[in-house]
Predict the 3D structure of the following.
Amino acid sequence: MKSITVVVAATNQVNELAIKPGTTAKEILQQMNLPDSYVLTSGRGQEPWGADENVYAAVVDGAKVYASTPVEVGFGPPLPLVFLCTGAFVWYVLRCLGVTKKTSRRSGLSSRNLTSLSSLIPAYVNGRPVVQQDNRPYWAKRGWCSNRHGYSGWYRTKFGSWEGLATKSPSGAIKLYIHKPPRLLGRHPKAQCFFSQGNGWYLVHTHGPRVRDLNSGIMRVEQILAEAHRG
């Protein structure tokens, strides 16, 4: 068993839950009596887990997760607050450098202060270790796993996540599948490229220059899903 804290974004309601191995996002939301329109994420601004995704395996004991509607996912603080915080930080830096002090009636800034301001940024960056780039392929970054049959994972957007599979033929051709795509997909022009295979699975007919491999295929499907929700 693992203990998690679920925060409802709209109301800041806090719920302490104990989850068993294999517990899914859908089961957690149902336990909280939240509508199907809600999704579960690992943090504010993070992409949601799929309804049938194993949350137990994705979190540590004592983790905090968030329940929110898709329109609440991916948004930060209100713009006025962003501008206020940014302006306060800039003012603080300028004051530390003496730029805000009275220097010249014409410009208000001295060349000495401008030089000090420009030298601040390189010193700040060079004084810290350089972050190493993540060179993994896109499918690995999205949490897909390879197996003897191909690949499995989730197509992730801020509106929701859907289970997916991918197979690769000896010639290198990629076939993508999606499980129970959203109904809103029906209003997208590319809906005709999704062919039912039974049991909720659909084959995604990928073609064109934008779909060359598994990485671009996953990107394309996620793009279609996001566009369908945006209308």
Notes: The chain has two domains: 2-72, 138-230. The radius of gyration is 24 Å.
